[in-house]
Design goal:
It is a single chain. It contains 11 helices and 24 strands. The protein has helices at about 5, 65, 115-120, 125-135, 160-200, 230, 275-280, 330-335, 340-345, 355-360, 370-410; strands at about 10-15, 20-25, 30-35, 35-40, 60, 80, 90, 100, 105-110, 135-140, 145, 155, 210-215, 220, 225-230, 235, 250-255, 265, 270-275, 290-295, 305, 310, 315-320, 365.
Length: about 425
């Protein structure tokens, strides 16, 4: 059966035909509280369709009934952004208790007509993105989706069994990514705890036999030194090839901008530059394991570790090893642990920024060679495992993102394929 034949069973329907309810959030902001129910905001919805509750604003229990009078978000509801930051979607999970914030809306899907996970994935497809782009209202400050017209937006709807198969395939990738992400988080916390125990609390192996002595950094173990970053690491920066010359872009050299720094390994970049672009600019190629830190703007202090050779723009500072004992991982954990201090050094200017000179002058502990060898023995396996898992997730995302448009459009025929499905509302 061809894809064309398979999609003959798909129907073009209006959004209002597949939901039980459609609501927008309040057009005001309640008085926030230190605890209580969650007050959802745009920042709580990630670009890849997840609800991120790592940073929460709360609404008091007294205010909660007032702000849920129109709708109480329930498990299986699909929320989305309709103004300013667009095309963000997520499903309300089990156990959630909160209310919609400004610029958020909610769809309560009809389970007899549509699989919620299918609808979530459909919103990431080309057809839906074209619908949104066609209907956008452009404002002087922000763009928005007209909610009065939203119920009449159309989608292509396959039979419910096909919806569930599509959701099952794509969800399998997301579950693997989520499992790997949890493992990465555990490994990252192990690495940070190792650093704090040894180099903040000074509870390194054999610390009981080592005296504490005065230094510029206060009391430190005997045999350690109070140093500057430049005493241990070389620093460098990058550059931006001229945008006026198209021959400088589209090559094979990874080129990092600060917004691509995510406190992890960097495998891919949004843009790549050519050898000519490298030669005709101040950009430089740095080796694998180089630590990169953002020096300007909203991303100041964000970090990355190169998984492969790459160049950066001028807003990035590269830290390179001078001594094999002082690994990239020690530099990375030092900068991560001292991010607030670094961030404070960039305050006060119109645009927050720090310079290479500031980074070079940062005070850092230089432990004894013996302690560093032992630290490396423990830290390197942790970071190698993090790198492997991040690479797996990168590959899983690429595969999922290649499959998604082909599944959502019906290009891949699932009519006669037997796939185990699940109840999307409970997963």
């Amino acid at each position: 059966m061809t894809a064309t034949t398979a999609t003959q069973s798909w129907k073009r329907v209006k959004i209002k035909d597949i939901y039980l309810g459609f609501y927008d959030g309040p057009h005001a902001t309640p008085k926030l509280a230190s605890e209580g129910a969650v007050f959802l905001g745009i920042k709580n919805i990630t670009e890849d369709g997840k609800l991120d509750l790592s940073e929460i604003r709360y609404i008091s229990e007294e205010e909660f009934p007032k702000w849920t009078r129109r709708v109480l978000p329930s498990p299986g509801d699909l929320i989305f952004t309709y103004e300013a930051t667009l095309n963000r979607y997520a499903i309300i999970p089990e156990g959630f208790r909160g209310c919609l914030g400004r610029r958020l809306a909610l769809i309560r899907p009809n389970p007899d007509k549509i699989d919620t996970k299918f609808l979530l994935y459909y919103f990431f497809g080309e057809d839906w993105r074209k619908t949104i782009a066609t209907n956008l209202i452009f404002g002087s400050t922000v763009d928005r989706i007209p909610l009065t017209n939203f119920p009449n937006f159309e989608i292509s709807l396959p039979p419910l069994p096909i919806q569930r198969k599509i959701a099952a395939i794509l969800s399998a990738y997301d579950r693997l990514i989520e499992n790997n992400t949890r493992r990465i988080e555990i490994l990252e916390e192990m690495a940070r705890s190792l650093y704090r125990e040894w180099f903040v609390k000074f509870l390194f192996p054999g610390h009981e036999q080592v005296q504490m002595v005065d230094s510029e950094l206060g009391l430190i173990p005997e045999g350690w030194e109070a140093a500057k970053v430049e005493d241990i690491y070389r620093t460098s920066s990058g550059g931006t090839p001229s945008r006026k010359n198209s021959d400088f872009y589209g090559g094979s050299i990874l080129w990092i901008k600060t917004r691509e720094l995510n406190d992890g390994f960097i495998f891919e970049t949004e843009e790549k530059i050519t050898d000519l672009g490298l030669q005709k600019s101040s950009a430089k190629v740095f080796p694998p394991d180089t630590v990169i830190m953002a020096m300007y703007g909203a991303t100041i202090g964000m970090l990355g570790i190169l998984a492969s050779p790459a160049a950066t723009n001028q807003a990035c500072c590269a830290l390179l090893k001078n001594n094999s004992l002082f690994s990239s991982y020690y530099a990375f954990l030092y900068l991560l642990e001292n991010r607030e201090k670094i961030f404070s050094l960039g305050m006060g200017a119109a645009q927050q920024n720090i310079s290479q000179q500031v980074i070079k002058a940062l005070e850092i502990l230089k432990p004894s060679d013996e302690v560093m060898r032992k630290f490396n023995e423990l830290a390197e396996p942790l970071f190698k495992n993090i790198k492997v898992l991040q690479q797996k997730n990168d590959n899983l995302r690429k595969t999922r993102d290649l499959l998604l448009p082909r599944l959502i459009s019906g290009e891949i025929n699932l009519e006669e394929i037997d796939i185990g499905v699940y109840n999307a509302e409970n997963n």
